[in-house]
Each structure stands twice: as structure tokens, then as C-alpha cells.
Amino acid sequence: MVGAVELSVAFTNMVDLYLDSPNEDNICKLALTRDKEGVLNGYAREALRLDPPFKGVYRTVLSNQTADGLAIQKDGQVFLDILAAGRNVVQPHYHTLLQYSYLYSQAQVFPEPETVNACRDQSGKKYIISDGNISAFCLSSSFLINSRYCRCLGEDITVQIMSQVLRGVFAIIRAQ
User: Fold this and answer.
1) How many CB atoms lie within 10 A of CB 8?
2) What whole-number distance in Å separates Cα of residue 27 and Cα of residue 147?
3) Measured torsion, CA atoms of residues 2, 173, 87, 10, in degrees rounded to the nearest 10
4) Which Gene3D superfamilies does the record cross-reference, listed alphabetically (predicted)?
5) How far apart are CA 147 and CA 136, in angstroms?
6) Interaxial angle between packed helices 155-175 and 4-18, expressed in degrees from 0 to 180 and rounded to the nearest 10
7) pLDDT digits (tens, 9 = 90+) for 108-131
8) Burial of 53 (0-12, 13-18, 19+ CB in 10 A)
9) For residues 82 and 6, is the Cβ–Cβ distance under 8 A?
10) DSSP E strands, the chain
11) Which of 73, 81, 99, 171 could serve as 94's disulfide partner, Cβ 3.0–4.6 Å?
């Protein structure tokens, strides 16, 4: 995540996702405990997956690349559809762009992608966490993209901050 704007949007989206949802009671209970298992972190990651602060990002490729058999030429445009990737949605109608979510979704990495599951693998390897200017993920270790800004908090601290926002908001709800 970059800056206050994207983080604020992520907080708003997350709280909106969980208020009056089937998960609200569980989050309220967790908000009043120590949450040793990190389930609130899982809820934060799931919120970023299901309702990211922005839905996608375009980048320019810095050198010729191949990703899952698709060749991308230097200076070519890459669109990462973060929302579609988090929901295993395939949208192959982009003919001139590599839509990474198409490749990413082929693995069906999120069983029941429309369902919140705070106990999914929390290693972050399956999640695409967006950050505004550069993404806090790597398309692959050799996939070079042009991004002139690198002002991100990073995935771990972003998830920690978001889980504490969940704790604060939903503890107040429980107290009422």
C-alpha cells in the first residue's frame, strides 16, 4: 500500500465488507481477544482480495519477457486486474495486453472465491496486494515492470495495520 489515500480506501472497503455480514459476530469476538492465530489478519487479507482499494494497474515492460508462455515485448503494456485475480475471474477479452489475472486465475487459487475465508493460506503467496504506484507483489522474480515510485508500506505492515483497524472498529460495535 502507498500513502494515506489508498490505505484509507482499503479501511473503508474492509469495514463496509464486514459490517452487517455473516462475519461480523466473529470479528467482534476476535476484536476483544488476543487473536493468537492471526484470524483478523486473515480477514484483512480477504478484504484486500475481495474489495481492493483500486481494481487494477497498467505497467510498461522494461525488457522482453515470457510469462506462462505469453511473450511480452519491451515497452509493451501489462494490465494486472487485481480484482479479477482475487476472484479467479477469467476475462480473456484483452487481446493486446497480458492480463495477468487470466494466467493467475487458471490455477483457481481461491476455492469458493466469493466467500470470505479468514483461514486461507496466510503466507501471502496467493494474494495480490495492491499499493497504488507499485504493487507489493512480484509477477515473477524476473518479470520487470516500469514503476518510478516505490513508496509502499509493504504487505506485512499493511495487513497488521488493517487488522488493528478491524479490532478497533468492531470492538466499539461489540461494546455498544
Assistant:
1) 12
2) 36
3) -10
4) Cytochrome P450
5) 12
6) 40
7) 678 888 899 999 876 656 666 654
8) buried
9) no
10) 56-61, 65-67, 70-72, 77-81, 98-99, 145-146
11) 99
Sign of torsion over alpha carbons 72, 75, 76, 78: positive
Domains of the chain: 4-175 (1.10.630.10)
- Non-local (6+) Cβ contacts of 115 within 8 A are none
CB 67 within 8 A of CB 100: yes
Instruction: Say whether pTM exceeds 0.85.
Output: no
Distance CA 109, CA 118 (A): 15
pLDDT in tens, 45-79: 999 989 988 888 787 888 888 776 777 888 888 77
Looking at 20-147, list the stretches that DSSP marks H as alpha helix, in order from N- to C-terminal side. Answer: 24-31, 39-50, 82-86, 100-105
Contact assessment for residue 129 and residue 158, using Cβ atoms and an 8 Å cutoff:
yes
Please answer whether residues 50 and 98 qualify as being in contact, where contact means their C-beta atoms are separated by less than 8 angstroms. no
The closest alpha carbon to 158, from 11, 51, 58, 55, belongs to 11
